[in-house]
Amino acid sequence: MIPATFTYKRAASVDEALGLAAADGEDAKFLAGGHSLLPLMKLRLAVPETLIDIGRIRELSYVRDEGTHIAVGALTSHDEVARSGLLANELPLLAHAASQVGDPQVRHRGTIGGSLAHADPAADLPAVILGLGASLVARGPSGSREIAASDFFRDLFETALQPGELLTEIRFPKPQSGGWSFQKFTKRGIDWAIVGVAVQGDSVALVNMGSTPLRASSVEQALAAGAAPRDAAAHAADGTNPPEDFNGGREYRQHLARVLVGRALEEARSRS
Question: Which of 11, 136, 183, 257 has the most CB atoms around its CB within 10 Å?
């Protein structure tokens, strides 16, 4: 449980962080809250030669109304997202889901960008941003680029971020209509979700039902065809390949997905 030797560097700005990453190459990792990376380093599943601490770059911590969308800085903590009045009014699904992440210590140190860049399919926020149709802004040696959430998550712990790129912002279109709901099933409140679901209108995304967060496309198609929430929810597990571990097997998780999607759709309809 002791990480391999590494060099620690602290960046005071985005430009400095990118410069340090360019100098150290693919052996460097960005460190934000550390809740995902440090445990992997202790298990030696991640062995970076250099850690670039970006946790004090205040220019990446904000929640702003940009007119057509809401912009959230990548280093905004889960607690700041949960307590944002702007998000409570415009994106209550995001604010509520952030309030359910881990425990108060995790929410005060963990960041939205760190969670998304880590790309754990059992995490809450990757599915939420997928369901909300967000896009992610990455900045690297070649400048900035915007990546749709549907293109960002590539595989287990793998994203579209290139070596040396830093996730700087998440952009959320303002929902035009429809209620919302976030449901997850855990053994304890602080645990990763065994299964979870995020609903915004007729958009449905699943937590921990595959190697990446997933859109429940069969449910969405059923809703578009006029199906009732419970009937649409019967398709929640279609095309999924959930993990099997000590928390439950594949069929158990698929059953949970159908139950939770049904509850979430009914709750979302009640909020419409």
Answer: 257
**Residue 216: inside a domain:** yes
> Each residue of 79-115: pLDDT tens digit?
999 999 999 999 999 999 999 999 999 999 999 999 9
The CATH number that applies at residue 189 is 3.30.390.50
Tokens encoding 5: 């030797």
Question: The domain spanning residue 91 has which CATH number?
Answer: 3.30.465.10
Say which residue the tokens 């990792």 belong to.
Answer: 29
Cα dihedral 170→174→178→182 (10° resolution): 20
Which of 21, 106, 102 minimizes the C-alpha distance to 57?
A: 21
**Percent of residues, the chain, with pLDDT higher than 90:** 84
pTM for the whole thing?
Answer: 0.94
Q: Is the dihedral of CA 75, 156, 28, 191 positive or negative?
A: positive
Q: What is the pLDDT of residue 158?
A: 95
Single-letter code of the amino acid located at 269 = R
Domain count, the chain: 3
Residue 2 lies in a domain: no
Nearest Cα residue to 170 out of 211, 132, 123: 132
Strands (E), the chain: 7-10, 28-31, 50-53, 63-65, 69-73, 135-140, 143-148, 153-155, 158-159, 166-173, 180-185, 195-200, 203-207, 214-215
DSSP letter (8 states) at residue 111: B
